[in-house]
TrEMBL record:
Domain of life: Eukaryota
PANTHER family reported for this sequence: BTA1P (PTHR47473), METHYLTRANSFERASE DOMAIN-CONTAINING PROTEIN (PTHR47473:SF1)
Entry keywords, A to Z: Membrane, Transmembrane, Transmembrane helix
Any coiled-coil regions, as ranges: none
Region span, Disordered: 754-774, 862-882
A Pfam family that the UniProt record links to this protein: DUF3419
Biased composition (Low complexity): 758-774
InterPro entries named in the record: DUF3419, SAM-dependent_MTases_sf
Protein name (database record): Betaine lipid synthase
Amino acid composition bias (Acidic residues), ranges on this chain: 872-882
Ranges that cross the membrane: 15-35
SUPFAM superfamilies xrefs: S-adenosyl-L-methionine-dependent methyltransferases
Length: 882
């Protein structure tokens, strides 16, 4: 591919297959490019000068320079000669011809600007801050002008340095900044490998201000960090022959908390990166064999190098904050990536990476983070103390970080995030990939009001709960407990919670409402890049970038038509259409009173929806129950067992047979009838409202979507106590400090376990053996909970078998809701609505009343360590806040 230019293709006397393929592709490329240029209106910054050439002239020049012009000065002028030979003739049309080709530049700038703006907010509105930006291989300065879409460049940056080796492009850049009147931008025509800020009076502690460097200064060691708050490289890394040298120099240019933004072409196979955990996620990174071979050969012609080493080395030398793998669809799907990075070694107050790891480990495990009281002794005391205090309690994040440090690799990207909400996990494990990057629940099916009244959370509570769609986690957060550990095995459920949390942090209520209330926001992609991205982990960012169309597709049905639960909504939609009751659904939603609602339900909707036909054909199928409602087979067995034992089957005058379809039909009736009888869907039942309409409404929505909730949860630090774990509950509680949790909300997750029998429970309790996962989980819960701590659970069974396990392992159980079964007074005791979802047959609170042997250690052991304190002065307070 010749359009980037820069280096010279050797003259070929024979047409090699590589040249032939590339030539062919050139024609395709040219045609597509021409089409783009001639159909798209000009966007973004203008050309450097005022004499912008016409489209035809630009294209002709572009083609001549790229495909025909002999590159004569390469051998004589080194790299600069090569660049000049290529760019001199086309510098004036460079910008016009690169808009389509150099894709993602604005996105990278938006991401970098978002990070800088967040840092500026933290630095007290950035008052008086001297901010420096170095654009390496900056060409014509297009990026610097384009940045003005995101920040006011002349005001936000005190100095901007454009460093480029091509005099012709530098000249265009100079004209651009003269036209704009931006006096804070300096165009430096220099080899990026040699550029040093101190040569321009912006080094560390003003070391050198002269523009001439003494030869001996090159013997001085390069500093660990420099003064640039932002360094960008857009499509230049792939062009600089000695990329090691330029990547190495980035650390000594970058300020301690500075950001690096890179956008460039790449071609990598999964063999290159599969076993790395520091790359910030791998979504869409693999490029297939044909595309890899083709694009490498094509770009090779101009010595624009797509070999994996460039990106790999960048990721090896620096820390990854965010990354995304994309394709330039307008030009044959050329693979390109956007990457945001920072220093590999985090700069904490003591600049010791292991201190940061210890701190994040403490966040995940509820272990106290111990700050040495005697600061000069520093980290050694800290390390010893942490090891003495809880040698066995290490999060998986800690293990991964230590593994990386010992191999001299950067930390996993979670450690470089602005927030430590999301805890590191290994996304390549089958237990996570089994979900195929799809969440099941787009909204949470548990009544948050009932949870609130049962739990009455206070400021001392340390809560562990299943994430699901995150709605209830946010309702708990509104009650301001000390900590919430949200857990889900499905990474995408946690991505959804992260998106909600980031939206609280970054968006005004109106945008928040559109995204999660209406489920659609046409500007979602740009909000994601320019506002939400600094609050997301790299993996959540990639996920939402990949799935932005959920919110932005004008013809799509939005967020609530996604995930496994969409199948339930769709079946309802089809059934209501099939039975001609769509209009009745609208009437139900408009019903002003419960009486009106009941009448519409019984006369028009119930006969269709609860017809035995629907139940036996659709709803009772195991595949549907799993895909749409997340009902696993053990839970299904509980429903069937309750049905088999019910009076409807065993009573003197049976009204149902002992079959799966009857069991499911009965279960649906027991769920839905009481809901319609007792809750007003249009105003007070968001769970069914969203199923019927595909959206929430201003008068009917979950608590977390209210304006008041937004006011509470968008306050700075409001969600600092949140930890999002991607793992099994079991794995997380096994690593939580004993005796620290006060509440565990496990929803219906224990229904998923294979059941025990009374005999095995008794035997296992006596032997203290551990054959059943439910038993193991109950024991771990006992250990993690404080005395008096509670487990809140729901079950599809009226009395789930595992209550026996709780009772045998130090818990007292109490039924907090039993909806019964069958029609009351007609052989049954049903008809009760235990919450607005009423989806589960029962709800239980299990209170810890006894410790299991070995006894749960009391809190406070950590504080007893000599020479250590939890508070550790200002620094301690700061760390503990995290
Ligand atoms: C494809 S252009 C990208 C220009 C600009 N960043 C943009 O996005 O429009 C690559 C740039 O890298 C510059 N370049 C290549 N090698 C360089 C080096 N050793 N030092 C400085 N700049 C270099 C070229 O002159 C060219 O301007």
């Amino acid at each position: 591919m010749a359009s980037l230019g820069g280096n010279i293709a050797p003259s070929e006397s024979v047409i090699s297959p590589q040249v032939f393929v590339s030539g062919l592709a050139g024609v395709v490329f040219f045609t597509l490019g021409f089409y783009q240029l001639s159909t798209k209106p000009s966007q973004g910054p203008q050309d450097g000068g005022n004499d912008e050439p016409g489209i035809i002239k630009s294209i002709l020049l572009f083609c001549y320079s790229c495909f025909l012009k002999p590159h004569s000065r390469a051998a004589r002028g080194g790299q600069q000669g090569a660049l000049e030979s290529f760019y001199a003739g086309q510098a004036g049309v460079y910008d016009a011809t690169r808009k389509t080709l150099l894709k993602g530049r604005e996105d990278m700038l938006a991401l970098a600007a978002a990070q800088l703006r967040l840092k500026a907010e933290k630095e007290d509105a950035g008052a008086g801050k001297k901010r420096i930006w170095v654009d390496v291989g900056g060409g014509t300065g297009w990026n610097i002008e384009a940045m003005s879409e995101f920040v006011n460049v002349p005001e936000f940056f005190s100095s901007v340095y454009l460093v480029d080796l091509s005099p012709s492009l530098c000249e265009v850049a100079r004209r651009r900044f003269a036209r704009l009147g931006w006096t804070n931008v300096q165009v430096i025509c220099e080899d990026a490998r040699k550029f040093r800020l101190e040569d321009y009076g912006n080094g560390l502690s003003g070391r050198r201000k002269s523009s001439t460097r003494s030869p001996t200064s090159y013997f001085e060691p390069r500093p660990d960090h420099g003064g640039a708050d932002l360094i960008t490289m857009s499509y230049s890394l792939s062009m600089i022959p000695d990329y090691y040298s330029v990547v190495d120099s980035l650390s000594s240019l970058l300020a301690p908390h500075g950001v690096i933004g890179v956008v460039d072409f790449y071609a990598q196979s999964k063999v290159d990166f599969s076993f790395r955990n520091h790359t910030g996620g791998l979504v869409g990174r693999h490029v297939n064999y044909l595309a890899r071979t083709f694009w490498r050969a094509w770009f090779d012609l101009d010595r624009v190098s797509l070999e994996p080493g460039r990106r790999d080395y960048l990721e090896y030398r620096l820390g990854t904050v965010l990354t995304a793998n994309l394709r330039n669809k307008a030009l044959g799907s050329i693979p390109y990536y956007i990457w945001l990075g920072c220093h590999k070694k985090p700069f904490s107050s003591s600049s010791l990476p292991h201190e940061i790891i210890e701190r994040i480990d403490a966040l995940a495990t509820e272990s106290p983070y111990l700050v040495p009281s005697n600061k000069p002794k520093g980290p050694d005391a800290l390390t010893r103390a942490v090891e003495r205090t809880a040698p066995e309690l290490r999060s998986k994040a800690f293990d991964a970080a230590v593994g990386n440090l010992s191999a001299n690799l950067p930390l996993p990207s979670f450690f470089y995030q602005n927030h430590h909400w999301r805890i590191y996990y290994d996304d390549q494990l089958e237990k996570h990939t089994q979900f195929n990057d799809e969440y099941i629940y787009a909204f949470t099916w548990e009544d948050s009001k009932v949870d609130a009244s049962l739990l009455k959370l206070g400021a001392d509570d340390v809560v562990l709960a299943i994430t699901s769609a995150g709605d209830n986690i946010l309702s708990y957060a509104m009650q301001s407990p000390a900590r919430i550990h949200a857990i889900d095995l499905n990474p995408s459920q946690n991505h959804l919670l992260e998106l909600k949390v980031a939206s609280f942090a970054a968006l005004p209520y109106e945008d928040f409402w559109k995204i999660f209330g209406e489920g659609k926001h046409l500007e979602f992609r740009s909000l994601l890049l320019s506002k939400l991205s600094p609050h997301l982990s790299s993996r959540a960012f990639q996920y939402w970038l990949d799935n932005a169309a959920i919110f932005t597709n004008p013809r799509g049905r939005g967020l609530y038509d996604t995930g496994g639960s969409k199948h339930a909504i769709r079946v309802f939609r089809w059934v209501s259409r099939l039975f001609g009751c769509r209009k009745a659904v609208d009437e139900l939603l408009a019903a002003e009173t419960l009486a009106e609602q009941r009448q519409i339900w019984h006369s028009k909707i119930r006969p269709a929806l609860l017809s035995p036909l629907v139940s036996s054909l659709v709803v009772s199928s195991e595949a549907f129950l799993w895909a749409a409602l997340g009902v696993p087979k053990n839970q299904l067995a509980m429903i069937e067992a309750d049905h088999a034992a019910s009076r409807a089957v065993t009573g003197p005058t049976p009204t149902a047979t002992n079959t799966r379809s009857h069991a499911i039909w009965r279960y649906m009736v027991d769920t839905l009838d009481p809901v319609i009888e007792t809750t007003h869907i249009a105003t007070d039942n968001p769970y069914y409202h969203v199923c019927l309409t595909g959206a929430f409404s201003p008068r009917c929505h979950p608590d977390y979507l209210s304006r008041e909730a937004h006011a509470i949860l968008s306050k700075p630090g409001a969600l600092d106590g949140l930890r999002i774990h991607t793992d099994e509950i079991d794995e997380v509680i096994a690593r939580i400090a004993p005796g620290t949790l006060t509440v565990a909300i496990v929803m219906d997750s224990m229904d998923w376990f294979p059941p025990t029998t009374p005999t095995t429970t008794e035997k296992n309790t006596k032997n203290n053996s551990n054959p059943n996962p439910a038993t193991a989980q109950v024991r771990k819960l006992n250990r993690a909970l404080r005395m008096g701590g509670r487990v809140l659970l729901r079950s599809a069974a009226r009395k789930p078998w595992y209550l026996r396990e709780f009772e045998a392992h130090g818990f007292a159980t109490r039924c907090a809701g039993d909806r019964g079964s069958g029609q009351a007074g007609n052989g049954g005791d049903g008809g009760k609505c235990i919450d607005r979802v009423n989806m589960y047959a029962s709800c239980w609170v299990c209170e810890k009343v006894a410790n299991l042997p070995p006894p749960t250690p009391g809190l406070g052991a950590a504080e007893e360590h000599a020479g250590l304190s939890l508070e550790g002065g200002d620094e301690g307070a700061d760390l503990l806040r995290l």
